[in-house]
Design brief:
Layout lengths: L1 H14 L4 E2 L21 E9 L2 E8 L11 E5 L7 H10 L18 E5 L9 E2 L9 H18 L7 E7 L1 H18 L6 E8 L5 H14 L5 H19 L3 H18 L3 E2 L2 E5 L11 H10 L5 H7 L2 H6 L11 H7 L9 H10 L3 E7 L7 H8 L7 H6 L3 E5 L2 E12 L2 E6 L6 H4 L1 H15 L2
Parallel strand pairs: 4-5, 4-7, 7-8, 8-11, 11-14
Antiparallel strand pairs: 1-2, 2-3, 3-5, 3-6, 9-10, 12-13, 13-14
């Protein structure tokens, strides 16, 4: 019954005649597809009404490669949930300019066309006009994304025949898995025209309990917990798992937050996004409900003052964003609305797509990440029922180097059939921000492999 309902929802959502607003909303002397200035590539952007009272914003950067049709289209989905792809992913990770509007020499537009979508609705420039329009789980998020990408390909049909990949980070990886499954179904049903090649999940929240259970051993092994702290972290981790196993997902979410508080107490406030960094303790951040503490810890990082000033200042005017919309203004509610779904894994979806599709499925992880640590990622990968896992495990990984640091390993990778894993050295949670050259090299490797 549940499956039938979800199929009905998918069919209905795709069947919606999605309206696109702000089409070619460019400066007065532009038509939306011209050069914005000497630093930036060709661009386009717009809104899609994915449901009544729910509006999703997308922003496309054409590749600097000529012709643009000679390289793939890559969609970037940020985490949070509530982190903005058009803001954080664009200006602090992979876009052509950084937050100070200076050129980035490791931008992904040098090898691909880059599309950003602010999702779930309420994130970034995306917005809802009624609180009932927020999503509460990844299935609903995936439906909205299918509707949005359908409208995008209909508006710009020249991208329908170009190889299409989805790259993601953090909670974006969880959303990407669900989205990829529904997008593939829509393509197979003839409802979407796209050359969907695969998706990549970077430091992604695929199996939350596996991450919580590996935090203690990982921190102990890296000299960030002593035996007393380790015992305290393991105690709350076990309670988190117990609540999850009992189906008490809200309580499991609260205990996840408690586990992070315990870690900060015993590790001198280690940074959950890079274990080599330690935060200055902020007592104000420790107040409020468990979900409010989680929101501050994992969402505020995406909305620093400099980025907010840029997005709510000159760029809001350039893009023609409605006056009533504040970039990031609804992000807190986006995060809170997902609280019942936070701890639910999507391993089965990833497993299905590896086993039963031709999509290339890629996992990559920063060596120094804590929130989605590499031991936790490796743990959930070993839970796959994919028949090729035994062969994957027996394959020896390969080191890779980048031009500027030939004597320094940038990453290791291994692959078998349509599954690949990249271990990124000297990077935390935000791999492109910490190891930009390695991330770009990885992207090029994935694109090249897709041509074979």
């Amino acid at each position: 019954m549940k499956s039938a309902i979800m199929n009905l929802i998918l069919s209905s959502s795709i069947g919606i005649i999605a309206f696109v607003m702000l089409v070619n909303a460019a400066p007065p002397n532009c038509k939306g597809d011209c050069e914005q200035n000497h630093k930036e590539p060709k661009q386009d952007w717009g809104y899609v009404g994915v449901r009544p009272k729910a509006n999703m914003f997308w922003w496309l950067y054409y590749s600097t490669q000529q012709p643009f049709s000679s390289v793939p289209l890559v969609l970037w989905l940020q985490g949070g949930p509530g982190g903005s792809s058009t803001g954080f992913g664009n200006f602090q990770e992979i876009g052509p300019l950084d937050v100070n509007q200076n050129p980035r020499n490791t931008t992904w537009v040098s090898v691909a066309n880059i599309l950003y979508i602010d999702n779930p609705v309420g994130t970034g420039y995306s917005y809802v006009t009624d609180s009932s329009a927020y999503t509460t789980n990844v299935s609903q998020i995936a439906d909205d994304l299918v509707t949005c990408i359908t409208a995008f390909f209909n508006k710009l049909p020249q991208f329908q025949k170009i190889p299409f990949y989805i790259f993601s980070e953090s909670y974006g990886g969880k959303m990407t898995a669900a989205f990829s499954q529904k997008l593939l179904q829509a393509i197979q049903a003839g409802k979407v025209s796209a050359d969907f090649k695969g998706f990549a999940m970077g430091d992604s929240w695929i199996s939350p309990v596996d991450y919580v259970m590996t935090w203690g051993p990982y921190l102990k092994a890296t000299s960030l917990l002593d035996s007393v702290g380790f015992a305290a972290v393991q105690d709350v981790a076990e309670r988190t798992k117990e609540a999850f196993d009992q189906g008490n997902y809200s309580r499991s979410t609260e205990l996840w937050g408690e586990a992070e508080n315990v870690i900060e107490t015993y590790s001198d406030d280690v940074n959950f996004y890079n274990i080599l960094e330690h935060n200055v303790p902020d007592e104000n951040a420790k107040g409020g409900s468990p979900i409010e503490q989680l929101r501050r810890r994992h969402l505020d990082v995406y909305q620093n003052d400099a980025l907010s000033a840029l997005m709510n200042g000159p760029l809001k005017k350039k893009l023609g964003i409605p006056d009533s919309v504040t970039w990031g203004g609804q992000a807190g509610e986006v995060f809170t609305q997902q609280s019942e779904d936070f701890m639910k894994p999507v391993i089965s979806i990833v497993d299905d797509l590896i086993t039963n599709s031709d999509l290339r499925v890629i996992v990559y992880n920063g060596q120094l990440d804590l929130i989605c640590d590499t031991p936790g990622t490796e743990l959930w990968v070993q839970k796959l029922t994919w028949p090729g896992l035994v062969h994957f495990n027996s394959t020896t990984w390969t080191p890779e180097y980048v031009k500027s640091k030939q004597g320094d390993t940038a990453y290791f990778y291994k692959s078998y059939e349509n599954f690949a894993f990249f271990w990124i050295m000297k990077a935390g949670h935000m791999v492109p921000a910490d190891a930009g050259e390695a991330a770009l090299s990885m992207l090029e490797s994935i694109i090249d492999s897709g041509k074979k």
